[in-house]
Design brief:
Strand content: 15-25%
Distance between the termini: 30 Å
Structural class: alpha+beta
Number of helices: 2
Largest sheet: 2 strands, antiparallel
Bound molecules: protoporphyrin IX containing FE
Radius of gyration: 19 Å
Strand order of the largest sheet: 1-4
Shape: elongated
């Protein structure tokens, strides 16, 4: 989920030292960074790049299984950022969502409502990934 739909679509950093980013091919130009340049790291694009994730539009949680996770290239999975300023709440966030889903699915069936848009469309604009028209679903209590 966080690979295909990272809630925060990009990260920013401010350059503290001059740095030249060398390119891999002659067709591209090296990029010179100066002190105080602001850099945007496009998480969404990195997560959807077929060189990083073959068949990137496919929702395939098995990419992250114990067997396959060694194939994920370093710094290509960034939902919580990376480095010394990465998300301090990442473990709490993952635990919270698991508990929430467990409790909901234990007691309810999720059903579409008149407002549910299927297939889900990503809202345009803004820095956060969200659904166009909002996330709407109904809860039908499961009889014990
Ligand atoms: C799915 C939920 C969440 C996502 C996707 C998320 C994502 C992120 C990202 C991308 C960053 C920037 C990292 C970087 O620049 O490298 C960040 C920073 C941060 N997040 Fe989260 N976050 C989530 C939940 C939370 C929660 C639950 C908390 C607190 C309880 C939290 C607290 C923070 C803090 C304090 C920072 C700033 C860290 C710093 O600058 O040193 N986040 N988060």
């Amino acid at each position: 989920m966080l690979r295909k739909w990272p809630p925060i679509i990009a990260k920013d950093r401010i350059c503290t030292k001059p740095y030249t980013l060398r390119t891999a091919t002659k067709e591209e130009k090296d990029i010179e960074f100066k002190v105080d340049d602001m850099i945007w790291i496009p998480t969404h694009a990195i997560h959807r790049c077929p060189e990083n994730y073959p068949n990137p539009e496919k929702f395939d949680p098995e990419r992250f299984s114990d067997e396959n996770k060694g194939n994920i290239k370093p710094y290509t999975y960034l939902p919580f950022g990376v480095g010394s300023r990465n998300c301090i709440g990442s473990r709490f966030a993952l635990l919270e969502v698991k508990v929430l889903l467990f409790k909901i699915l234990l007691n309810f069936e999720l059903i579409p409502t008149a407002k549910t848009i299927i297939p889900l469309k990503v809202a345009k604009g803004g820095l956060n990934h969200t659904a166009e028209g909002g996330f709407w679903f109904g809860l039908k209590r499961i009889q014990a």
